[in-house]
Amino acid sequence: MKSYRKELWFNIEKRRELINITPYIELCLNESGIREGLCLVNAMHITASVFINDDESGLHHDFEVWLEKLAPEKPHSQYKHNSFEDNGDAHLKRTIMGREVVVAITNGKLDFGPWEQIFYGEFDGKRRKRILVKIIGE
């Protein structure tokens, strides 16, 4: 069995951002040479998420509105975590959206259902952030 590991780095310009990382993951899969196996993609920051969904702007807006209702950023004082930071909401948003995804690899392709894409969700950005890609198989 082969194993492939790569870190992807992104400069996140806004506090919150959703980035379709599917093309980057497909490049990693091509580099790996693995044709059958599993691909793990996970956020390497506790205020970020990796998830699978549709790449549709209305849905992305709905995520933003929904997450803000569940874990509003302000007032910062509502979170005990925020005694030294102002990102308590980002930790909660990450928990809701999840840490990682695992996608099957079949015939050298990510084995997606209709409309599925992989996203990196950042909830406390404005700096450089990292994603881990680990692919195993043959």
Distance between the termini: 5 Å
Low-confidence stretches: none
Output the radius of gyration.
16 Å
Assembly category? single chain
**Mean pLDDT, nearest integer?**
97
Number of helices: 3
- CATH-derived topology: Jelly Rolls
The structural domain count equals: 1
Helix content: 25-40%
CATH first level: Mainly Beta
Please state roughly what percent of the residues sit in beta strands, choosing from under 5%, 5-15%, 15-25%, 25-35%, 35-45% or over 45%.
35-45%
Number of strands: 8
Tell me the name of the CATH homologous superfamily. Answer: YjbQ-like
Features:
5-stranded antiparallel beta sheet, Jelly Rolls, elongated, 3-stranded antiparallel beta sheet, alpha+beta
Provide an overview of this structure:
The protein is elongated and about 50 Å long. The strands form two sheets. It has a five-stranded antiparallel beta sheet with strand order 1-8-3-5-6, with helices on one face. A three-stranded antiparallel beta sheet has the order 2-7-4. It has one domain: YjbQ-like (Jelly Rolls, Sandwich). By secondary structure, the protein is α+β, with helices and mostly antiparallel strands.
In a nutshell, what does this entry contain?
With 138 residues, the chain is of the alpha+beta class. 25% of the residues lie in helices and 38% in strands. Strand 5 (100-106) and strand 6 (109-110) form a beta hairpin.
